[in-house]
Amino acid sequence: MSLFESGLSDGAVSMKNIFDGSAPRAQTTTRTLGEIAEWTVRGGFPQTLGMPADDAQHFLGLYLEEISRVDLARVDGIARDPVRVSRLLQSLARNISTRAALRTLARDTNGGNLDPKTVTSYLAALERVFVVEDVPAWSPRMRSRVALRSAPVRQLADPALACAVLRAGPERLLDDLETFGLLFESLALRDLRVYAEPLRGRIGHYRDETGLEADAIVELGDGAWAAFEVKLGGEQAIEHAATSLTKLAERVDRTVRSRLQALAVITATGGYAYQRPDGVSIIPITALGP
Asked: Is residue 6 part of a domain?
């Protein structure tokens, strides 16, 4: 469940309105970073919504253990080593919201002795039980000859699964903002995926050889698209994200740019939703909805 479905976002800025070209408008949010951390740890599973963060982590840990021991074999009848599955989940959690290569996951899973093809098989099985939801690369037509990166971004279905594997509670996230930022990105991607679904939108990410990137591209079937960067907060981080988004808009082919509906930075807390003079919208995640 998304934050809107959980009653933790008021949905004042809807994905539908974003694609209708409406400028975002929402009142100042009062949620704290600590609350966002707790929601990240607890996750959007219906069973965990009313639980304290510690209980939710315990529940999700047991769930992942059951998947490692039993559920994957039910997918295709192939018995897989539960220890390797558990180690792969640990590697995915450590590399959440990154473009970790198969060889990196293979090294983490079996000390470098696991064939990357075997990792691919494990990942496919985890996708089929709705644990892994990698974000594929978005490949628009470009104005220049800049090469695009095609590696997927590693994501689990819910950042709470990664927190459970890492045993990272809210306090630990607040003490490690770098890790928290990656998990918050995962939270935002989860919600964007949910909000895009009624519009039949697809989620991708963008990165080119110069390092220019966008955390999420939502593209509809008619070619309309919107680009999002995700930041915990901070004026400098938001400014950098907005600059990256405007550069991306300038870099794509004119035909692709004509279908651009919005550039937006999703933030964790504070402030209100608004559109900057450069056209980039700033949207607290607690104002985002379908």
From this structure: no
